[in-house]
Amino acid sequence: MIRETRDEDAPGVVDLLNEVYPSWLNTEAAWLHRRRSEPERSRRLSLVAVESNRIVALGGGRLDHEAARAGAARIHVAVRTGSRGRGIGGRLYERAEAHVVANGGRRLLTTTIDEEPSRRFAELRGFRHTLTGRISSVDPRDVDLSGFSALETEAKRQGFRLVPMADVSAEDIYRIAIEAARDIPQDEPFGDVPFAEWEQAYWRHPSMSFEASRAVVYEAEAVAFAMIHADRDRGKAMNEMTGTLREFRGRRLARLAKLGTIAWALENGIAQILTGNDETNAPMLAINESLGYRPIDAELSWVKEV
User: Fold this and answer.
1) What is the DSSP letter of 103?
2) Where exactly does CATH 3.40.630.30 map onto the chain?
3) β-pair partners for 63
4) Which end of the chain is more exposed for a tag (fewer CB within 10 A), N or C?
């Protein structure tokens, strides 16, 4: 049976997500937050396939309300390994595509894990591969933090201060995030997301850790940050975003912020920090590799013109 999702589906949906996307930080609170905070203009359709009272697949589509251009839409389908090859994913996809096209979607975007069945699924439906994202992981206990203090001292001499995210305003981080997001390789340029929408989606995200995240402040305003989502019960964290205002780049401020988050993780029982970067994002990949992040998986981005 295929039906629209309900709030009470959260445990089953997250169990499925943890099976299909084990590299990411999936929680019930995060799924419910995304479901409840997305603006109405995205026109999201969210579906699940249920067999014997168990969610075996999910899918849906929405207009990309963060894209700079009209007509961008995102579609997703995920099917448990044991339920594949029976057409469930195809039926979910058909309903999702029909929904977004009916609502004005003309450039369809999707992501898949880097595996043959998922690649074949996308190709058979007319998608072309555009970008490859590298998923990397590091154990904070393996990171060399010996240079952290010296880097922070040097930054202080130049007028910069490293502080917990709780010490800065949402407006400061929003300003950096919007500018930095426009420089991230992606299929659709990042648009003018209203502050209220950004604040609800990112600043108020239930996994967002104001203790773990770090900002770099210059003359009372934040100019760089590293945002962390943390699940202390599972000893797992994820880099949500790292960014620096363009005029302050090249001063190792992103590295300083990330080292601050790693130092916190080491002191608070986090055994794994995950991050994702497009393979063409050379500056951020260089920072992560120098800190000890190593590839563990990959995601593929796809585009289909309707």
Assistant:
1) T
2) 2-126, 136-298
3) 73
4) N
Distance CA 24, CA 116 (A): 20
Task: Put the strands of the sheet holding 107-113 in their side by side order.
Answer: 2-4, 45-51, 54-63, 72-79, 107-113, 294-305, 128-138, 272-278, 236-244, 221-231, 214-218, 160-164
Looking at domain 136-298, its CATH class is alpha beta
Q: Name the residue with tokens 């995060």.
A: 30
Question: Does an H or E element contain 19, and which?
Answer: helix 10-20
Residues, the chain: 306
Q: Give me 141's structure tokens.
A: 């206990």
- Kindly state the helix (H) or strand (E) to which residue 187 belongs, with its residue range: none
Of the candidates 56, 29, 31, 59, the one whose C-alpha atom is nearest the C-alpha of residue 45 is: 59
Which residue do the tokens 């058909």 mark? Answer: 94
Which residue, among 32, 89, 22, has the nearest Cα to 56 in the 3D structure?
A: 89
Short-list 111, 136, 288, 104, CA closest to 187? 111
Per 3-state DSSP, the chain is made up of helix, strand and coil in percentages (nearest 5) of 40, 30, 30
Q: CATH homologous superfamily of domain 2-126?
A: Gcn5-related N-acetyltransferase (GNAT) (3.40.630.30)
Per-residue model confidence as pLDDT tens digits over 147-185: 999 999 999 999 999 999 999 999 999 999 999 999 988
The residue type found at 185 is P
Residue type, 41: R
SS (H, E, C) 220-241: CEEEEEEEEEEECCCCEEEEEE
Around Cβ 114, how many Cβ atoms within 10 Å?
15
